[in-house]
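Lab notebook: predicted structure, single chain.

Context: the supervisor wants predicted structures on file for every construct in the current expression panel, including those that have not yet been purified. This is the next one on the list. No modifications to the sequence; it matches the entry in the shared construct table.
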Amino acid sequence: MSLPFFHRNKKNHKLERELRNAFKNNELQVYLQPRVDTSTKKLISAEALLRWEHPVWGFVSPNEFIPIAEDIGLINDLGDWVLERVCKYLADWERMQLRTLPISVNIVAQRFLRRDCFLTVTSILKQYNVDPKYIELEITESSLINYEKTVVNTLNQLYELGIKVALDDFGTGYSSLSHIKDFPINTIKIDRSFIQQINYKKDVEVIIKSLIFMAKELDLNIVAEGVETLEQYDFLRKLECKEIQGYLFSKPISEEEFQKLLNKSKLEPNIHFSLT
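Prediction complete. Output recorded below exactly as produced.
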């Protein structure tokens, strides 16, 4: 049962106040979720995900605090902070002689509307001496459609610098592969809502097959999000989907836990999770 309007607004107001404090009090963390090569099971990338651990409430769902951060104008600062943390991780791994791999960071459309976007990104990279090839920026399909001109201008600058660009949640909006091929996109990520229908809806399976085939023809990398079962993994592996991301191989984990995976030759599926 959903909360009544009054109580929902009261809760949001409290979350807003606590979120501002969280940013100041170092309650925010950047977790990493591995992206795995489907054929070799090798860890080849990861997505950075913002987490909030409240001292009283525990972990607060991103579904609750991200919309609030957008409403109160804090989302851009949070995005810049996540990028800064990721660059620090990469610099630390290199210093510790651990394997370094690309990390993707989510960027909201609002960030591209600010003139300092390109300068901020390049400044953070320079601060930590990070090679741009290790950064991938994820934007949503709706961002590309609704703010096409502004977004693409900035993306072109970042792309020329060597930063990779991924289109997140592909299939949930109105664009098509034939449309996005004109933009500086390296990777498309198939939305988890499609992956969850594997072995249940044949028409969705046909869509997934078509997306993978067309991505290959357009020389785009493709990542399947939300892979949770061995059946989903086998389906995608047979179609030669390049990368998968999901709880079958790993939930989002802390940077300390992620370090332990960096020098592993491959990751094994979590069979117990796939059976639950």
